[in-house]
Amino acid sequence: MAFQGWSPGTRIATNMKVYLGAARRLLSITLDLQEIFVSDEFLCVRCAKHYSTCCQGTDIFVTLGDVRRMTEASSATNFTEFRPPADPAYDQTEEDPFWQKHVFRSDGKRRVVKHQPNGDCHFLGPQGCTLASTVRPLICRLYPFDYTADGLKEQPAGGCPVELLRPQQKLLQVLGMDRGQAEQYRAQLYVEIVEHEDTNAASESAAA
Fold it and tell me: What is the distance between the alpha carbons of residues 50 and 128, in angstroms, rounded to a whole number?
């Protein structure tokens, strides 16, 4: 900042404005941190206040079993589409070949939940997910567990705001995630992954 030609009073006033502005920003950050660490709100609620959540701008793969459960519970239709991954993190070619083989079509696309115009999940409402937890997509019920066809991994997947945890808190414990239940979801997911529309069509044709 150039002060040449400015009176001492102007310089002092200008410096005070700069310092006060910085102090207000620091106070705002401090209050935000206090709210983060002192609040008794559920972690997902606090996450939604400060970040984009896992329900926003995320590719949510759904099995045909997911689609049936979601349709029956919500009466929604036409809420899925086939889309290639926008994020390279969804490419499981090396980490989980089983996933790559059965989830992705030959054109590199897979069945995902449609986004709202703002990028939110089709089922995300003002108070969170509009689906009951028992009919949400299996990958939503599993998150933030990380997994492959071989089983659950020891460490959670990235993405959750662990910086909002208080000292000594563990992510999966705070979220109330049960490893045994998660393993059941994972096993169900990999059973449903191999089901395809053409298989259903063939079964219905045979039944007719």
Answer: 15
With residue 142 as reference, give the H or E element that holds it: helix 138-142
Length of the chain: 208
The answer to whether 101 and 92 are in contact (CB under 8 A) is no
Under DSSP, the state recorded for 148 is: E
Which one-letter DSSP state was computed for residue 119? S
CA distances from 100 to 30, 79, 113, 141, 206 (A): 45, 23, 18, 20, 29
Whole-number pLDDT of residue 2:
47
Residue 173, SS3 per DSSP: helix
Distance CA 135, CA 154 (A): 26
CB of 80 closer than 8 Å to CB of 114: yes
d(CA 58, CA 87): 9
187 burial type by CB count under 10 A (0-12 exposed, 13-18 middle, 19+ buried)? middle
Cβ atoms of 72 and 46 closer than 8 Å: no
Residue 144: asked if its preceding bond is cis (omega within 30°), the reply is yes
Q: Give the pLDDT score at 15.
A: 47
pLDDT tens digits for 15-66? 455 555 555 555 455 545 555 555 677 778 777 777 788 888 889 999 999 9
Among 180, 148, 145, 150, CA closest to 160:
145
Residue ranges, the chain, pLDDT below 50: 1-3, 6-15, 27, 31, 201-208
